[in-house]
Amino acid sequence: MKGITCVLLVCVFISSSLAQWDNHWQAGRSTIVHLFEWKWDDIADECERFLAPKGYAGVQISPPSENVIVTDQAYRPWWERYQPISYNLVTRSGNEEQFINMVRRCNNVGVRIYADAVINHMTGDRGDAVGTGSSTAATSSEEYPAVPYHAEHFHPSCSVNNYNDANNVRNCELSGLKDLDQSNSYVAGKIIDYMNKLISYGVAGFRIDAAKHMTPSDLKVIYDSLNDLNTEYGFPANSKPFIYQEVIDLGGEAVKSTEYTDLGNVIEFKYSSNIGRVFRGNDKLTSLSNWGTGWGFIDGLNALVFVDNHDNQRGHGAGGAEILTYKVPKQYKMAIAFMLAHPFGSTQVMSSFDFENSDAGPPHDDNGNILSPSINADDTCGNGWICEHRWRQIYNMVGFKNAVEGTEVQEWWSDGNQQISFCRGNAGFVAFTNEGDLRNTLQTCLPSGVYCDVISGKLDNGACTGKSVTVGSDGTAHIELLSSEDDGVLAIHINAKQS
Question: What GO terms in the biological process aspect are recorded for it (predicted)?
């Protein structure tokens, strides 16, 4: 009996410890899409009409807390969303009622909502400021009556200017933003109340903005005080919110991403910079054979990964010119396909609006109201929106990822240079060329039959709308992928079998 009790205790401990990494994706779904600056009503529509049918698991939304209205620019910049003036749920994306409706509708079709939580700071020094919900603040004197916060709730004014000093990074003002003191129980309580309100409305978790600039022990107090997820939205009892933290760690600084992995997932920025470097041709595809911890990444169970996000696609944050974006579409789609074909980490794809100026806000009318994306006949977007998540090559790779769930990489092949292929168990096969024509007979690991390439097309009413691949009884197939083609990747899986 004593031995059995010990085993049960271990099981309880393991179950509890894994809860903080549970992303609450429904079975058969994967991948979070960041619908950057979308309106709540449009996200609700997108969950129902596209994300659920295509197998997406969740949406990261822009910060839902009221932000300052920036009036000293020629246009309202995207980064005003990252300068809270209160925790009221009124932004250019919509009001509290629209927020509640969005979360409900998305949960109803099995698509989870993850809120971008800006809890490190409030606004910059913007004088007497007004927010998107008409709240006011005397920012110079750190008075935010709509919370309320007063000067004693902030760290003493100083600038983050020494990344070799953890105290400077965590207790000073990032880009001049008023830095909250999370060790203050009143401040922690206000943050907890805000996050618990979102939990009560059905969110599945949080992206923690600027987690690097907060002390892990302070964040632990906040996370440990969060309520269980709301069972009215289909979450099992005792479920904890999924936490993924923005900790930019490319090495050589005082603050390390591993300091935060005991608290939840951490965004692995080394993934983004390295995958961009490889698919831009600055390293060989064959070097990806040990992708993951072999590249110095944190463990995949702790990592949330992407090719680009709203910061680094604009040259901010980390990675610089190596970062791939929609502006380099062929290599970008290849990098996304590799990310979704490979089992490392929890995956997120970016959905952008078009920009030339890195500060530019979302498409808007003359009054600054965000415009809705138009939906074209081929499922792509217009009205100034890029909607990478609606590109065939990307959403079909989400389907690939769903089809190969639970399998590992096997039968890795390369030409020693810029061509690779691999299987995911006996469920999927993918091949890439970043230089030259690939013409080779390769092991696909799939049962014999004819499969539709989900990059060039799809399986539609029993026929392939793009390329087809014939797999023989030994699992091999002749693969042809030419450098002149629009896409440098081919992918087949068990759910795209024609016959």
Answer: carbohydrate metabolic process
pLDDT tens per residue across span 296-339: 999 999 999 999 999 999 988 777 889 999 999 999 999 999 99
pLDDT in tens, 352-373: 999 999 999 999 999 999 999 9
From the list 405, 396, 390, the residue with the least C-alpha distance to 491 is 396
Domains of the chain: 30-267+353-386 (3.20.20.80), 409-493 (2.60.40.1180)
246 noted as active-site residue: yes
- Determine which one of 142, 181, 246, 388 is catalytic: 246
What gap in Å lies between CA 207 and CA 114, rounded to an integer? 7
CA pair distance 64, 39, nearest whole angstrom: 10
Closest CA to 276 of 356, 349, 334, 351: 334
Catalytic: which of 209, 249, 259, 453?
209
How far the first Cα of the chain sits from its last, in Å, is 54
pTM: 0.95
| Gap between the Cα atoms of 397 and 433, Å rounded | 17
